[in-house]
Amino acid sequence: MKLVVDREDIRIDKYLGENTEFSRELITKMLKEGYILVNGKITKPSYKTKLEDVVEIDDTYKIEQDINPVEMTLDIVYEDDDIMVINKPSGLVVHPGNGNTNNTLVNGLMYYTNELSDLGGNERVGIVHRLDKDTSGLMLVAKSNRAHEILSDDFKNKRVYREYYALLIGNFPSDTAHIDAPIGRSKTNFNKMEVRSDGKVARTNLKVLKRYKDYTLVSLVLETGRTHQIRVHMSYIGYPIFNDPVYVNKEATSFGQFLHSKVIRFTHPITKEQLEFTSELPREFNEYLEKLD
């Protein structure tokens, strides 16, 4: 990932500690070992920033973490020897990171079974793709490495159908829409993505399901899988997702954005059977829709 410095005369380790997900201690190690370059060069942690410095971060840097199995209730929609389909609740982080090593889906999966693919490393066992912490709904988990390899290729080549339901703020004027807008990481806020001309291709298809006075319930189908893609695209077109704590300039409740992975359809990586699963909206989502009615 790349960052462009927007403040000068600050120690680089302090600046990155405030503008990335990494701790200052970890940043110091990454700087010394060449995992962070400033203007293409290895730099000391004491280096003072200059405006427009280009910082390149190799975020594949690994730190051995004590990731332990944790007992938790998993909503398993489907399971066989090679894959699982999980209905993830809003509020559950998918994999360890940013200081959270014990309260993630990965911890729960490790407690549930020892049969998980390890292609993603110890902190991402079984994880083929992810949902944001406050996005609920269906996601795939690989139990065998062969299944993981094939599913990863299917995601990469757009052979997995994913449909989301979202509640947008405002009355969307058209019945359908196609959003084709490239997405990249924000230059000013590491935790946000944004539409940028130099970003990666991102395409989302929208269909209106129901209109309320000040909101619109929509179905969204992804053609690509960029970080925060739906949330960024909806904000970009002026109809952000209700209760989004990052992309809406209003205080959000702890439930987070009203975005749910409703349908997933794919070819089983081993048996080649065509599979499709759906999940109901979370209770909080449904109750809010009932209030709007």
Short précis:
The chain is of the alpha+beta class and 293 residues long. It has helices spanning 12-19, 24-32, 105-112, 145-156, 229-236, 283-292, and strands at residues 2-4, 36-38, 41-42, 54-57, 76-79, 83-88, 136-142, 161-169, 176-180, 183-185, 193-195, 203-211, 215-222, 259-267, 274-278.
Entry keywords:
4-stranded antiparallel β-sheet; 293 residues; Structural Genomics Hypothetical 15.5 Kd Protein In mrcA-pckA Intergenic Region, Chain A; Pseudouridine synthase; alpha+beta; globular
What does this structure look like?
The protein is 19% helix and 27% strand. With 293 residues, it is of the alpha+beta class. Strand 5 and strand 6 (83-88) form a beta hairpin. The longest helix is centred in the middle third of the chain and has 12 residues, at 145-156. It starts with a strand and ends with a helix. The model has no long low-confidence stretch (mean pLDDT 92).
List the helices and strands and how they pair.
Elements: E1 2-4, H1 12-19, H2 24-32, E2 36-38, E3 41-42, E4 54-57, E5 76-79, E6 83-88, H3 105-112, E7 136-142, H4 145-156, E8 161-169, E9 176-180, E10 183-185, E11 193-195, E12 203-211, E13 215-222, H5 229-236, E14 259-267, E15 274-278, H6 283-292
Parallel strand pairs: 7-14
Antiparallel strand pairs: 1-4, 2-3, 2-4, 5-6, 6-7, 8-13, 8-14, 9-12, 10-11, 12-13, 14-15
Helix pairs in contact: 1-2
